[in-house]
Protein 1
Amino acid sequence: MSRAELIGRPVPRKEGREKVTGAALYVDDIEPEGVIYGATVRSPAARGLVREIVFGDRIPWDEFTIVRPADIPGVNYVALILNDQPYLADGVVNHPEEPVLLLAHPDKYLLEEARRAVRVEVEELPAVFTIEESLEKKEVIWGEDNVFKSFLVDKGDVDSVWASADFVVEGEYTTGAQEHLYIETNGCIAAASPEAGVTVWGSMQCPYYVHKALVKLFGLPEDRVRVVQTETGGGFGGKEEFPSLVAGHAALLAWKSGRPVKMVYDRAEDMVASTKRHPSRTRVRAAASREGELLGLDIDFVVDGGAYATLSAVVLSRGTIHAAGPYNCPHVRVRSRAVATNAPPHGAFRGFGAPQSIFALERHLDRVAREVGLTPEEFRRRNFIRRGETTATGQVIHEDVDLAGILDRAFELSDYHAKRERFARENASSRVKRGVGFATFMHGAGFTGSGEKFLQSVVGCEATADGRVHVLAASTEIGQGTNTIFAQIAAEALGLDYERVEVVRPDTGNVPNSGPTVASRTCMIVGKLVESAALGIKQQLTSAGLLREKYTPEEFERACREYVERHGSLKSSAQYKQPDDINWDDEHYRGDAYGAYAWAAYVAEVSVDTTTYEARVEDFVAVQEVGRVIHPVLAAGQIEGGVAQGIGYALYERVAWERGRMANGQMTNYIIPTAADVPPIRVHFLENPHPGGPAGAKGIGELPMDGPAPAILNAVEQALGIPFNHAPLTPEAVMEALEREGALV
Amino acid sequence: MPEETGKITINCTVNGEPAALAAYPFERLLDALRQSLRLTGTKEGCGEGECGACSVMLDGRLVNSCLVPAAQVEGSVIKTIEGVAEGGRLHAVQQAFVESGGAQCGICTPGMVLAAVALLEQNPRPGEDDIRRALAGNLCRCTGYVKIFESVLKAVDGSH
Amino acid sequence: MRAYLPAYELVVPRTLEEALGFLGEGAGVWRPFAGGTDLMVLLEAGRLAHRKFFSVWHLDELRGIEVSDTHVTLGALVTYSDVQASEVLRREFPSLCRAASETGGWAIQNRGTLGGNIANASPAADSPPALLAHGAELELVSAAGSRTVGYADFHTGYKQTVMRPDELIARIRLPRPAPGAAHFYRKVGTRRAQAISKVCLAGLAETEGGVVREVRLAVGSVAPTVVRCLRTEEVLKGRAVNPALAAEASAALVGEINPIDDIRSTARYRARVAQNLLEEFLSQLSPPSRS
């Protein structure tokens, strides 16, 4: 049997053909018999009491299905962590665009006319719109103090270092909200009745999150609720928790009308109503010695969670743990809080809090280096974490991490040193100023701490009589390549051709709960379960005496047929078991925060035109160690896409808020990079197989979001000699700073 | 309701076949294709001509079908993503997108493929700058465009 | 789609005469609809107030590019793609070509028309500054006949023009520039493609021995209409270009524009960048100085 190894090979994407021919069916492409359409009436105000809902003239209201809070069969909250977000505001609204009422009608155009004919009259209450206002308790809008969650990471004794340190450097860094802007908006189709239960098809990352929420919303037993993922046009975290809301709304309308209901947001609704990346404010105080030793870090990290708790606690957790970066620092304190404001809830977004705190640290370390009198590079090199050393949570790094080597490679590929020297020389006489900068960082794969232990994810495999293997998991294909890599992993484990393995569409009626498709966990955590479940098939065949240890595909097929004939079916499943050497203390936030980390160094080259104050990324190099690379094209695609989002985050993507509402909720006015804006993005992987992952792979999806923003703003600092501490960096901000400095033009 | 305009029938050619669209005069070509003909490969991404997911070829030119009212396509020749592969054989651009990672989530892909096909019809040997300019009206949020450029370049190589 | 479609009408006349008949039906009852790249966006957002439209897209009378010894005349339905494909325009009207290439993406450029862009009268439109710099005139037609107006006099206020309700833009006439004239067009919109301009400056100048003989300047996105900067032009005319003159002109420019803060940018940014763009243009006029 001569079969090339599948791991590391760029096999064709499983659903690639359907996607390039337009045959792939996304939720809006599905039109069940008798379907009617649903719409959401939303709050016009940021905070207040709903006094009256006025139904306008000239609309045949008797033709409409109308759902109010009283129509909810179960409980009126989106079941997640704290369950504080209602499906429909019941008398009180806490953010603009909060759902108040649902409508459905067979005529889309009339439905829209009707939506606009409903007037929600709100007696407004004072509202809170910024982190500062929330912390000052200008108004208490949530709980006792506006704080959803706080954490404290405490390593060593940071207060012991300030007095004796040669340098103590403080800084404050802020980041804005970011819209996911998946090109497919949110949408669901629901069929529901007391007799049949509830079924939802939709665009989503986490079918079992939706399932859990619907069980509560309808008060139904778990087996009466079924959630099916349709082809999903991008997620990036934006379809982690939010689809539970859309699905619930569609299902409530279906339940009441007795007809299938389709609810697909248009872009304007999706942008103003759905989640965004948490805005943040980070204060960093760092102590260093004259020799460039990082002695202590005291970090105060705050994120704006919007009006309801939703996932803010976990976003905060990841941001907190990543705040001190991949450095060996003996004394670290990270205090963090997620606070409430009267904006739509901020939610999961690729990186999940880490891009915010890493932005602060990586900007700050350039500054510390300058104060100490070292280059940004040299300062970091003296402090990179190495095997046997500990992170901020006290996690001992057992793997052979080589950040210096990663950085060397990134510098080599980007020609960093020559550029830095050349730009320093040429900038004085040029209207276009150039700079090159970098960031070094890590990203933990999988759920934080004991998260995976609690999830207890399960993956199933089934072999058919003709020797084909089906992988059953709730992990969704959202463009990142789940279908393809799962098939590669299972096929590799069984020594089969890639084509012999199919990944079944996630359907809670049919697949086990392999956990949510988030947290860079799909490849490493779930992929490992796929590998185990596949090996379980082989094990059953060998135990039954139908297969030898070494076999040909034909022998495998014969064995499967034999087994299925004898036993009816051939199935196996694998459940996550936390390795014994992972220990996490959730109370003190200490211990092994993640099973593994990906490590990276990103280098950005920028130009700033002093005529227009526009900064552009001219070249980008991303070097990372993510364990073994399962699929080089998909993996590079993840990095390139994440870097492009990071470039947007750094330079283009500004949410213009007006009293808690996104005022630029159109693709015309919320600017993401186009094909003409992205620089060459050169991706390089250093491979270091990790024993905990399938075939040695670690997580990858979120990593590329962490590095670009600080690398780019570090590069801008070289170009202009001005430190900018807010992302996104707009041309307007560059102009204001240059005028303040009076330095140029 | 005030005075109302009814649906009209619009005759045109879609993917080489005669088609009759029942549509309001101002109905978006996008909706008419998706509803009347169930050609759902043409996607809506923004509804304002910004993202290009709804791109189709109208009388030989790439257009955003969300910005074309149905009344204007009487007698026109339209090609959608469903008409790009011929006889089940993928177009060189489609094949390259599958092989080179040009499609991730796939929602921008139909429009992106059509824009690339339109480019190659106009300029059979585009360089990377030409590709960047030609695809600038098609937004992708997954790929960072790198693999899309590679796919188009591969299609250029493959077809010569 | 946020519009109630049954409430909207779109008829498709096949001749110009038939089209003008709709305009003659009564003041403002029917309005023209060309490539739809602006109106469809309004419709979709539920913000298209007018309900009755006639399509001009198929009127061949309003297409085509004609060249005479002194002028190039463009039909109102010439698209941005047509502009870029025209050899004479590429050679002699680089600002207009640049504007056309920076308006939306390809699909927009295939549908957006110059006439539509002018009639829509957005201060942020990309082609008007170029048309002003090129010294365009417009031919307006109605059932009663036609008349020609200078484009510099066309826009009278935010979305206001001198056009009567029964008139249609038929043609755009551009005087062919003197050989050796300097052209400048720069749109600033944060990203390289598909951007709405925050500020945009177009200029055309004829110089002789470093002295400005003729100059036209126009700026977009800095006032309720696109602005032809006549006072700044006066400052420049007949004088030798040097840094002192540039500073004087730059000061005059600020007096002629009235930018605002909005969701896209700030008044300060727009004013400052408009000045910088003017200085950049002027620096291209003066012979390179070696210090």
Protein 2
Amino acid sequence: MSGSLLLISSYPKSGNTWARLVFDYLIRGGKDEVSINELSGAVHGRARRQLFDTYSPACSSDLSFDEIENLLPELFRSLVMESKGLQVVKVHECSHRNRRGEWLFPPECVQAAVYLVRHPFDVAVSFANHMGQTLEEIVETLGRKGSNSPRHPGNLDLPLPQWMGSWSENVESWLLRSPYRTAVARYEDLHERPVETFGRLAAEAGVEAEPGKVEAAVAATRFDILQAQEREKGFRERPDTSPVFFRAGRPKSWEGLLTDEMRARICRDHGPMMAQLGYREDGSVAAFQNSVGAGESRQAR
Amino acid sequence: MNVATASGSWLLPGLPGARVIRVESLPNRLAGGIRVGPGLEAMPGSILISIQQIARYLCSNGVAIEVATMPRADPGAVETFLDGPARAALIHQRGELPLLSTTVISPQGEAVVLCGATGVGKSSVGAALSLRGWSLLAEGVTRIGLDAGQVIAHPSHTAFKLWRDTCEWLGIDTAGFRQTRADFDKFYVPATAVSHPVRVAAIVRLRPDPKVFGDEPDTSGRKLLESHSYKNELAVASGAGANQERVISAIVDQCQFLIVEGAHADPLPAVADKVAEAVA
């Protein structure tokens, strides 16, 4: 096998694109500038459908969701066989097995997973903007178990479906039930101490970073730089439903937007997982002991 | 789609002389074959296609497909993959080109082959054109070959495969139409069809909004044909590369290559208008 995958995983709007830009920078050797539209690894959504149809013996539009999922492990094996080095892959679905009992991303193809979490208050506000939905609808989505599940075979939208789960399900699947060596970080820590936190993630994921490279990667991916690029040239991963992809880029963007009822609903749905991650019900963030499941990187294949 | 004969085998429309034979089982590997991709192995004269939980298809010498159906497989699914991947494999073996496309016949009687990325709306645009007097020649995979040196597309289908929402956009009532698979909201939508080979006038690439699909390489001519043929590597792996190369060269020499922008973004009638204008 000539290549391997580095999974950058998270529930949506939790720093995934930022992390992909940083790791892409580190792995490709680091150009002075990053380009959001040259970001590799979006083997996700529409791009995954295109990739699927390139490798699969049958067109995705003729397959059910379960059949697509059953073929995906072999597809990722083919991708790895035909590639060299570490391939960064964006993942928003839960870590899970298909109906044949195989992990969607075959563990032998995965060097490591980097899992990012963010306070669900901020996720709700950012995700609502991303999807063009109301906050009420998104709070409901965050709590819906098996949400966006690909189990129903009625139609196939352009992106391939994904089993994203509720926010808690998503977090739990990666922290407690994934077979990969997993490095975990909170968005808030990335924001407060980016060089230290990305450096730790890189070390735990086995990504070599020469001295100074993490600092350079963080500098090259500053939020205002990404925002300016999107303003100037657009961002191909921005969905039609979202007016802007790089919106706030900071913690506590929920303040003044989420009502008491919405916050209470989020805490009711996700309280136990929030507590384990240091996410308080008042929206503040406590110290994170990295003690949840795979909080410390591990090998469990 | 397939025509049963008294002997219990089937004929494949668009592939005269080709037969489909149902068998109890097929091997899961092709002895001596090379792996072309997941579920796909080939060697000169033989291509084995495995679709998990549906069926295996052993395609031989461009003339026969043996089909071993998995237990409890949906017959609609078995037929779908017979008509798509398996038929395309047979076309490769004949040294012709199985182009992932929808081919329609203009009111002037010329074949217009609609190509484009997966999900861009080839069938939908074809159906929109059929509602304004164009005819259907082939859907999903178009068999393109040579007849006395001239590039021709062979007829293979009399219905488009359309999702329910596409039918609704086009004002087509799906009541009474057969589903492509038992649990799919996708239908065979009958259309006026042409039953004889037609000279290919144009290859039209439906290009989507790059903000939605990402930038596509600016391919035209030969590269476009290679990237839109069904698993292009099969031609060489099955020993038919040289013959297929002649077909591709003839297409490049004889056919117009056109690009229609705005696919999947503009309304279907608008995209159909652009195609009609482009080939006029």
